[in-house]
Amino acid sequence: MAVSSDYPVSFYFTLSFAGVDAAFKEVSGISKELSVEEIVCGGENRFKYRLPTISNSQNLVLKRAMVPAGSQLVNWCANCIDQGLSNPIQPKNVILKLLNASGVVCMQWTFNNAYPVKYAVSDLNSQESNIAIESIELAYTYFDISKDTKFDKLFT
Asked: What is the pTM assigned to this prediction?
């Protein structure tokens, strides 16, 4: 049996929102979890029933080198965070695509109704020559996963 070397690599990805592509060095927080509630049944001391309740997700965290003023993404963050709910938050769908070595999409995550909840800049230190990194954290309702069918054979 031949071993396939077509596994996707995690360093080749694109992210877009509202039709605008944005480059990031790191994306984290892609996870779903089903919560459970433990129920103790009277008279049964050997175990607890563990019943599913709701699913929840972490916030999506995006990191990149600081972009000079004029970034649509940073403007969206400022409008959502700085307005203090005086203006309605305008959620957007954010699409993350994992590409293979040829640049073909092999996995795609769509984060529905995303909106910024945190904007941060890395520490500034005159003793180090690091690039200033900005971090944007997005809350979202849920995410969908789709993948290229040719990669299905790798996971079956």
From this structure: 0.78
